[in-house]
Amino acid sequence: MDNIVHLKKKTVISALSLFFQSGYSAFLGLVANLVVTILLSPAIFGIYITALSIISLFNYFSDIGLAASLVQKKEITDDDIRTTFTVQQLLIIIIITVGFFATSFIRQFYKLPTEGVQLYWALLVAFFLSSLKTMPSIFLERQVQFQKIVLVQIIENTVFYLTVIILAILKFGLASFTIAVLCRSVIGVIVIYSISFWKPSVGISRVSLKKLLTFGIPFQASSFLALFKDDLITLYLGKVLGFTGLGYIGWAKKWAEAPIRIIMDNVSRVLFPVLARLQHDKEKIGQLIEKNLYYQTMLLAPIMLGMIILMKPFVQFIPRYAKWMPALPLFYLMSIAAFLSSYSTPFTNLFNALGEAKISFFFMLFWTVITWILTPILTKTYGFFGFPITQVVLSLAFVLVLFQAKRLVNFRFWQSVYKTIIASIFMGAIALLIKSLNLPIAATLVTVGVTGFICYLSILFFLFKINVISEIKSFFNYE
C-alpha cells in the first residue's frame, strides 16, 4: 500500500510539473506565435512546418522502440542501457548522413530558399543533440521524476521562444527559427546532463537487444505508421496545396490541438510509466483510467468549446491577424477532431503499458490507411478542407478503441464524462447568447470568457453537485 501511495504522490507531482511547464511554454508559445504570424507570411510559416515534418520523418527511424522498452520494463540492466544507447546512436548517424546528402533533392522538390535549407541543416544538428538526452530522460521517467525533465524543457523553451521573438522583431525572417533551434538544442544537452548525469558507454548485447525488441518493434511500428499518417501527409499537403495552404492548415491545427498538447500529452507522458508499474493490478488501472477520463473531460470540453466560440473575435482583435481568417473553418473542424481523438490517447497508453503494443499497431495501421485514402480524394474535391474533414472522420474511431480497451480492463466511460460534457454544452449556449449581443470585440472576449467560466462551475455545482475546489483537494489526497 505504501508503494501505491508513494507512486501516486510522484505521479501527481510529475503531472503538475508537466502542466506548469506546458502552461509556461504555452504562454511563451502564444506570444511567439502571435509575433511570428503577425510579422511573417503564411508561406514562411509553411516552410517551417515542412522542415519540422522532414525531421520528424527521420526521428521515426532513430530508435526502433528501444527507449520505450526501457521505460516499460520492470527492471533494466547495464547491458540494456548500453545496447539502447549504442543502437540509437548508430541509427542516428546513418540518418543524419542520409539527410545531409538528400539536401539537394529536398531543396528542389519543395523549392526551398537558402534560408529554408539552413533551417533544415540546423534541425539535423538539433536532431543529433536531442538523441544525447535520451538516456538521462529515461532514467528520470522510470523514477516518475518528470519535474526534473520539466526544468530542462522550461529552460529550452525559454531560450527558443525568446530567441524567435527577438530575431523576428529584428527582421531575421526564417533565420529566426534556425538560430533558435540551435540555441535550444545546445542548452538542453548541457542542462539535462547536469541534472541526470550519465557517462555514455557503447556496446551491444544480443540477449538484451532481443528482449528489448520484443516490445520495441511493435511499439515503434505504431510510431512508424504515425509518420505516414501525420508527417508524410503534411509533406504531401505542402506539395499539393503549396506553402500558403499548408500554412493555413498548420495554423488551424496548432491552435486546435493546443489544449491537447498541454493537457493530454502531459498526462500521457506520466500515465505510460505509471500504468507499466501497475500492470498486474487491473482493478487499480481501471480506476486510474476512469479518473483520467473524468479530469481530462472536465478541462478539455469547456476549453475547446470556448476556443471555437471566441477564435473569430480573437483573430479580429489582434492587429494584422486578419490574414488568418480563411483558416477559421479549418480550425473549427480540427477542434472537433482533436477533442474526439483525445479519448483514444489514454487507451493506446494502456495497450502499450500492458505489453499489448500490437493492438496499438493495429489501430495506427487503420488510421494510416484511412488517412491516405481519404486525404488525397477529399483534398482534390474540397481543397484546404480535405485534410480537416479526414481528421474528423478518423476521430470517430475512438469508439472502436474503447471497445477494445474494455476487453482488457473494466472501466466506465460514459459515467466518467457525461456530467462535464453537459455542463460545457450549457456553458456554450450561454456564451453564444452573449456573443450575439454584438458588443465591442474586446468586451466580447472578456465577457464571454469570464461569464462562461462562472457558468460552467455553477452548472457543475448546482446541477451535478460537483465542487471543483473539493475535486482539486481530493486530487492532492495521497491516502
Radius of gyration: 23 Å
Low-confidence stretches: none
Structural class computed from helices and strand pairing: mainly alpha
Strand content: under 5%
List SSEs in N-to-C order. HHHHHHHHHHHHHHHHHHHH
The overall pLDDT, averaged over residues, is 81
Question: Distance between the terminal alpha carbons, to the nearest Å?
Answer: 9 Å
For the sheet with most strands, the description reads: none
Outline: globular
Helix content: over 70%
Count of strand segments = 0
Helix run count: 20
How would you describe the overall organization of this protein?
The chain has a domain at 257-479. It has helices spanning 2-39, 42-59, 66-72, 78-101, 103-110, 114-131, 134-142, 146-169, 175-195, 206-256, 258-277, 282-317, 328-341, 345-353, 357-382, 386-395, 398-406, 414-435, 441-464, 468-475. By secondary structure, it is mainly alpha-helical.
